[in-house]
Design brief:
Distance between the termini: 65 Å
Number of strands: 11
Strand content: 15-25%
Structural class: alpha+beta
Largest sheet: 6 strands, antiparallel
Shape: elongated
Radius of gyration: 36 Å
Number of helices: 10
CATH topology of the largest domain: Beta-Lactamase
Order of helices and strands: HHEEEHEHEEHHHEHEEHHEE
CATH architecture of the largest domain: 2-Layer Sandwich
Helix content: 40-55%
């Protein structure tokens, strides 16, 4: 694939310090022409120039690479310094000074941090100059390194921006796909749910009724997964979950209904509910029920089957506090740190079902209410606590 040299020219010209560097070169040496060049095996291109002697080579101009001394600098990666061509034992008979008409010349290699050769920082003048000294060579070396690091930083920034844009595009497409998929799954799922409800009303054998109830349980679980997927997509695409708060509506019946429904689905598990709410905070009852359902289902699934799941709601210092506690295997600190991230699971290989969106959605519901959802876990118990201003 052909190299895009215009990108190299643009990269040099984007470096705000280059004009100053070329000015410093000319002022410190007394030379009339300075340039930053891109030099390859077969190309020599001026990327940025400062021309006080009407040399006639603009930015973007090219010379035959093999006729330049920069070509030799590229080959051995050492600077070439000529104070006076006529007195120089190596270059007095070289064809390049004769073709270009210069008497003094200096070219310093520009080598990128990864070791790739980019080009040179060079200066020429039709008069002799005192260049071959530690001060001039040190200055040129420092300026060439400065250009190299600017070029490298520009490349890395460009790559990072492209990577970010690609990631953002992929994320948007993925979330749009999730939203469409979740929406399109609702219709067939509703048909299956309606069918199981009709079958349960008809005379069935005990085995058939058991199978239908299992199917209905699967439908309800799938419906919950779709709700989480759609909420995830809405939150990402719309900047957060929308709430429909109700003022003055008691919260206790909503919490009791959630616990009753989960208890009915898990008759072998004990769920204790303690509510002490003197006030009725303004909340979205549907969303809060969804959050509590996720937390309690999570506790039932991963808690110790021999110990009760404890749900408590109360007021504390003007805050609504809602907590769900279960006994069982503790969650590690590393897992706790990622627990509320989308598609996260408590522990790898823990046998968790679902997409890993339940706790993420719960945390988003908490944030939408101006509150927060936190988790704490030790050898005795794991507790998820939701707090929000009650006023």
């Amino acid at each position: 694939m052909a190299h895009d040299f215009q990108q190299d020219i643009d990269a040099v010209q984007k470096i705000a310090a280059v004009p100053t560097i070329l000015d410093v070169v000319c002022r410190s040496t007394g030379m009339g022409f300075a340039a930053v060049e891109r030099v390859t095996e077969d190309r020599w291109i001026a990327c940025q120039v400062l021309d006080h002697i009407a040399f006639g080579l603009p930015a973007g101009g090219e010379l035959n690479a093999e006729t330049t001394l920069c070509h030799e600098v590229r080959q051995h990666r050492h600077p070439i310094v000529i104070d006076d061509v006529s007195k120089d034992p190596i270059y007095c008979d070289h064809r390049t000074p004769e073709l270009s008409g210069f008497q003094s010349y200096i070219s310093m290699p520009i080598v990128l941090p990864d070791g790739r050769f980019f080009g040179t920082l060079c200066a020429i003048d039709p008069k002799p100059a005192k260049l071959n000294n530690p001060q001039t060579l040190g200055t040129f070396k420092l300026l060439a390194e400065l250009i190299a690091y600017h070029l490298d930083a520009g490349t890395k920034l460009s790559d990072a921006q492209e990577s970010l844009l690609s990631a953002q595009t992929s994320s948007e497409l993925r979330e749009q796909f999730i939203a469409v998929l979740g929406h399109d799954l609702r219709n067939p799922l509703a048909s299956i749910n309606g069918g199981t409800n009709l079958l349960l009303r008809e005379p069935q054998t005990e085995k058939a009724q058991k199978i239908i109830r299992l199917m209905r349980g699967s439908v309800l679980r799938m419906s919950g997964l779709i709700d989480n997927v759609l909420d995830f997509a809405r939150g990402r695409l719309s900047g957060g979950l929308a709430l429909q708060k109700e003022s003055g509506r008691p919260l206790a019946p909503t919490l009791e209904q959630v616990v009753a429904e989960i208890s009915a689905g898990h008759p072998d598990r004990q769920i204790e509910l303690a509510i002490d709410l003197a006030a009725s905070p303004d909340v979205d009852h549907g969303r809060l029920a969804q959050m509590l359902s996720n937390l309690v289902e999570n506790a039932v699934t991963h808690g110790s089957p021999d110990e009760p799941v404890r749900v408590r709601a109360h007021m504390s210092e003007g805050q609504l506090v809602l907590s769900v506690t279960n006994a069982g295997t503790p969650i590690s600190e590393s897992a706790l740190a990622q627990l509320f991230q989308p598609f996260s699971r408590a522990e790898p290989g823990s046998g968790m079902r679902g997409l890993g969106l339940g706790l993420y959605i719960a945390s988003q519901i908490a944030q939408a209410h101006g509150g927060k959802l936190e988790a704490a876990s030790n050898e005795t118990e794991t507790t998820f606590t939701f707090t929000m201003p009650a006023a």
